[in-house]
Design brief:
Number of helices of chain A: 20
Order of helices and strands of chain B: HHEEHHHHHHHHHHHHHHHHHHH
Distance between the termini of chain A: 32 Å
Mean pLDDT of chain B: 87
Strand content of chain A: under 5%
Low-confidence stretches of chain A: none
Number of domains of chain A: 1
Distance between the termini of chain B: 22 Å
Shape of chain B: globular
Strand content of chain B: under 5%
Low-confidence stretches of chain B: 1-5, 464-470
Shape of chain A: globular
Strand order of the largest sheet of chain A: 1-2
Structural class of chain A: mainly alpha
Largest interface: A-B, 38 and 38 residues
Number of helices of chain B: 21
Structural class of chain B: mainly alpha
Number of domains of chain B: 1
Helix content of chain B: over 70%
Radius of gyration of chain A: 21 Å
Mean pLDDT of chain A: 88
Largest sheet of chain B: 2 strands, antiparallel
Strand order of the largest sheet of chain B: 1-2
Oligomer: heterodimer
Helix content of chain A: over 70%
Radius of gyration of chain B: 22 Å
Chain lengths: 500, 504
């Protein structure tokens, strides 16, 4: 095992051991659990940065830091992990958001407290998320995909706001329904190809599976991933879950969990089942665009700020789906870019909405006092920055992904009908206008005003620690898109070209 | 074959019989010990435990899986046939059921209101029957051994000698009688059609032109009734909730694991062993049973508030997973008594045994001995993971295993394993079966998770639990939780241990 591989394994082991320590530590650990969580998640963040540093950026298409050991040989299940150019950004994003959430917990612990349990669950969640992005084996991917469920369920069900139990149950039942159908798809692929190794499957590019089998497999696997993404009309679990979840839950849910679905599509469906994907792509793109328009219309009708941010995710993830559906390097690169950008921006937005709620006790737009600029200028400015980043203002992170996704739709892959995608492109463009409208309305409604309303505390040190890195990233990703695109472009070319 | 082939005198391979024989002897010893030194439950339990461990100790000596005894005289043109075959399937199931019975013995150690001698003797007698079922390869032995499992278990259910217990035993007894009668009629049909009871000879006989196929195939389907009763699978499932509730909790645990193991192995021996060529008949039948069991069991569990009833319905649902791979047995290359299908079923059985016994043991330890467990409602256990973490957290883990949700990895991996056979077979109706199983798993998740959420919730502030419970956990019950927890954690970390039990 070389150094990078050791780092990759440590990414999974450190949070797992942290969660285990909290489990056995007993009730006394409540006193130091949050600080312990900050230390562990910061260590994971440092590890992920170290992985990024040791990663050979000259050759991002090559899987690096590979560990490949048999786990359940009878099932062909191998512990096969590694990083490449498309998993690395998500790994760093996950580690960053988890560390920020842990830090945020230093001052803002949601009711009913129980810091030991909450921190343990966050670390467990991190294991599942990182594992999903690192897994290079279908069944291992599935296992990590499932690891995420129970911790998120409890984060929502225990620490959530009104309606939490129903929201948590809806979340987990929807996701499990999708993921178990996805498992059937994985088993089908395995039965037909004899391997669950993602690297091998990508190299074969669907060889050995007739078109009909590929179609069934794409539909089954895609269902599980689409529920997670979420794709309209499978998104109905999302608004309630996001609204009911505590701030840290919403941040991780929107920031990372949703990406598991779209990442899975790029990682599994595009390279391993190209023919099936080509059949499904127009539908995927169409449903993605429906999501874009539906999400922005729903946001226009929203009276609750947190719910509005939640619905905006449906729209933004619609762009990601559209980008994937084009099956072009440019579209998929855009999708992956939008994935990361959405994680950063929406993570920040949920943090800020949480901050607004802490101060005013409500997120109801009708009851929220206006003129946050005057009352808490730093909070107000951050909110405005996040909102314009989210609407895709050029120069900020949200722009590139959606721009590239639409550019991909302008000239989709040769196997797809261009006219279909031109219609989709036009509708998506309409969606960007609506998105700009509702986000600017939020800025106007919350930030601006005559300066009346109660004075509230501005951003405190802990909040600044959690929020500023995301704001900085939102700017950097907008100014330097080449950093991420340079990583993902060779991988995407390899994934798309595997079969030919 | 160690049987003397040419001689008329039966020579019995006693070593092969040890896994069944030692518990049977243990049953007698337990009775005698209780007679000689009465009121020493721990001593009697030690005897029982020793005999079960003795049975387990015999397994390594048999591990090459080639021993057989009680063999029929050779016939020209017919394969050699033996009534008792210690093949790999038999040994693996014996391992599971003897170990499971040992956990049950630990669980009953705290039940001071039950007569120890009768209790352990009946338990061991039933285990001896189950161990015989595992190796029985002719239909008569199979039926007799299944009855040997059942009859002591009715007495065990009724052991508390109150009205509820009597009712519970009667429910099980009546269902069992019906199932056995149906099976015996099926055996008669098979014998009339093929002229043999040996499962090694029925398969070749089916190919014989003179055999009246419809008669044999009808018989085959009827034979499945008694195993289905033991498995508590639809349509012989309705007895389980009432019986589990009326029985002492350890006995319910016994019925849900050891008795089910006997039913499963009987079903495997008949379908994959004796009637492999007729898979076109039994595979759809088992598939329908599996689907119905998964649906009925999970939907039934969904509305339960009583802890024991929930576990009972859940164990009905779990039987569906055990049957799932068998339904795919029609496909060439997956069958056989040590093929993929049997391996998947047995792996699920082993995992299910550990996690389900664990769940019963933890609930039993939390409820305390006596009748308290039957009255236990879900809300009585609110906050158990915080008030008594050493019972509550293991219980959460066992539930996660049963649901197949990480961290209960062994439940997840064995579920993947049982789904594999139908998906691999790939016919449309097997694909449909896999989808039904998938949907049922989602429903299952709902109630396991609700149970776990109750355990993890903040304890109810003022409410006193319904039964006044002792804070101390009986030593045996504590050990039962500990042993099952260790086993389940180990096989979750290394699922290959169970998946590879019978792997081809």
């Amino acid at each position: 095992m070389n150094g990078l591989a050791a780092l990759v394994v440590a990414l999974l082991v450190v949070p797992a051991v942290g969660a285990l320590v909290l489990l056995v530590a007993g009730r006394r650990a409540d006193a130091w659990a949050v600080r312990f969580g900050v230390v562990v998640s910061s260590a994971v963040l440092v590890l992920s940065v170290a992985v990024a540093g040791a990663f050979d950026r000259a050759d991002p298409a090559r899987l690096q830091g590979v560990v490949d050991a048999p786990w359940v040989p009878q099932l062909g299940l191998r512990f096969h992990v590694g990083v490449d150019g498309i998993s690395l950004p998500l790994v760093v994003l996950t580690a960053l958001l988890t560390a920020l959430c842990a830090a945020y917990g230093l001052r803002h612990l949601p009711e009913p407290g129980r810091p030991r349990a909450l921190t343990g669950l966050l670390l467990l969640l991190e294991v599942g998320l990182l594992g999903t992005f690192l897994a290079q084996d279908l069944l291992l991917f599935f296992v990590f995909f499932e690891v995420v469920l129970a911790p998120m369920y409890f984060v929502i069900a225990v620490w959530g706001s009104a309606g939490r139990e129903r929201a948590a149950t809806t979340f987990i039942l929807y996701t499990v329904l999708g993921s178990i159908v996805m498992l059937l798809g994985f088993l089908l692929v395995w039965a037909r190809t004899g391997t669950t190794d993602l690297v091998l499957l990508a190299q074969r590019g669907g060889a050995g599976m007739p078109r009909a089998v590929q179609l069934v497999a794409v539909l089954a696997i895609g269902l599980g991933l689409a529920v997670k993404a979420p794709m309209w009309p499978l998104h109905t679990w999302l608004p309630d879950a996001h609204t009911a979840a505590p701030t840290v839950g919403s941040v991780l849910l929107a920031g990372v969990l949703l990406k598991m679905g779209t990442y899975g599509m790029v990682r599994i469906l595009v390279p391993a089942l190209p023919e099936g994907m080509a059949l499904v792509a127009p539908w995927l793109g169409a449903l993605g665009v429906v999501g874009i328009v539906y999400g922005s219309l729903a946001c226009l009708a929203q009276r609750d700020l947190k719910r509005l941010v939640a619905f905006s995710s449906v729209g933004h993830m619609g762009f990601v789906l559209l980008g994937i559906a084009t099956l072009t390097p440019i579209g998929i690169n855009g999708a992956l870019y939008a994935n990361v950008a959405h994680g950063v921006i929406t993570g920040l937005l949920f943090f800020l909405v949480g901050g607004v709620k802490d101060r005013h006790g409500t997120t109801d737009l009708a009851r929220l006092p206006r003129s946050l600029y005057a009352r808490a200028p730093r909070l107000g400015s951050l909110l405005a920055l996040a909102a314009v980043a989210s609407l895709g203002l050029p120069g900020l992170a949200g722009f590139w992904g959606e721009f590239l996704a639409m550019a991909g739709a302008f000239r989709p892959a040769a196997v797809l009908h261009r006219s279909t995608f031109l219609v989709l492109l036009a509708l998506a463009a309409l969606g960007t206008v609506l998105t700009a409208y509702y986000l600017l309305r939020v800025v106007r409604r919350v930030d601006q005003g005559d300066g009346s309303g109660p004075l509230v505390a501005d951003v405190d040190a802990v909040e600044a620690t959690a929020w500023v890195p995301l704001a900085v990233l939102a700017v950097l990703l907008g100014l330097l898109p080449g950093v991420l695109l340079g990583l993902s472009t060779p991988v995407v070319s390899a994934l798309l070209g595997g079969g030919s | 074959m160690s049987a003397a082939a040419g001689s008329l005198v039966q020579s019995v391979d006693w070593v092969a019989l040890l896994p069944a024989l030692v518990p049977a002897v243990g049953a007698v010893v337990a009775l005698v010990v209780d007679l000689v030194v009465p009121h020493r439950p721990v001593l009697v339990a030690t005897v029982a435990l020793a005999s079960l461990l003795g049975g387990l100790a015999a397994l390594p000596a048999l591990r090459d899986g080639t021993r057989a005894t009680f063999c029929a005289p050779p016939q020209a043109g017919a394969p050699p046939a033996c009534s008792y075959v210690a093949d790999h399937l038999a040994l693996t199931v014996q391992l599971v059921l003897l170990a499971g019975a040992a956990v049950v013995v630990l669980m009953v150690a705290g039940e001071h209101d039950l007569p120890p001698g009768e209790l352990q003797a009946l338990l061991l007698a039933s285990v001896a029957g189950a161990a015989t079922v595992a190796a029985a390869r002719d239909l008569a032995t199979l039926v007799v051994a299944l009855e040997l499992v059942s009859l002591p278990s009715f007495a065990l259910v009724a052991l508390r000698r109150d009205a509820v217990a009597g009712q519970a035993a009667l429910t099980a007894f009546l269902t069992s009688v019906v199932a056995t009668a149906v099976t015996v009629m099926g055996v008669a049909f098979v014998y009339a059609g093929t002229g043999t009871l040996f499962l090694q000879r029925t398969a070749p006989a089916l190919a014989d032109a003179g055999v009246r196929q419809p008669l044999v195939l009808a018989g085959l389907v009827l034979v499945l009734a008694a195993p289905a009763f033991k498995l508590a699978s639809v349509p012989f499932h309705a007895w389980a909730p009432d019986t589990y509730l009326g029985a002492p909790l350890p006995v319910a645990a016994y019925l849900s694991v050891v008795s089910k193991a006997a039913g499963l192995v009987a079903l495997l021996a008949v379908t994959l062993g004796g009637f492999a060529p007729a898979s076109g008949t039994w595979a759809p039948a088992v598939g329908v049973l599996a689907a119905a069991t998964l649906i009925v069991g999970n939907l039934g569990a969904l509305r339960q508030r009583s802890v024991v009833r929930l576990l009972a319905w859940s164990s009905i649902a779990q039987a569906g997973y055990l049957l799932l791979p068998v339904a795919a047995g029609a496909v060439v290359g997956l069958g056989g008594l040590d093929g993929l299908v049997a391996a998947a079923s047995v792996a699920y059985l082993a995992a299910y045994g550990a996690m389900n016994l664990g769940a019963f043991a933890a609930v039993g330890a939390a409820a305390g001995p006596g009748r308290h467990a039957s009255a236990l409602q879900l809300d009585d256990l609110r906050g158990l993971a915080r008030t008594r973490p050493w019972l509550g957290l293991p219980l959460v883990f066992f539930l996660a295993c049963l649901a197949g949700l990480p961290p209960g990895l062994v439940g997840l991996v064995t579920k993947v394993r049982v789904l594999e056979a139908p998906v691999r077979a790939g016919t449309p109706w097997l694909a449909l079966l896999a989808v039904v199983a998938a949907l049922a798993t989602v429903v299952g998740l709902a109630y396991y998770l609700r149970f776990a959420a109750v355990l993890l919730a903040a304890p109810a502030a003022a409410a006193t639990p319904v039964p006044a419970r002792p804070r101390r956990v009986a030593v045996g019950a504590g050990w039962a939780v500990g042993v099952t927890l260790v086993v389940t954690v180990v096989i979750s970390a290394a699922p290959a241990l169970v998946v590879g039990l019978l792997a081809p």
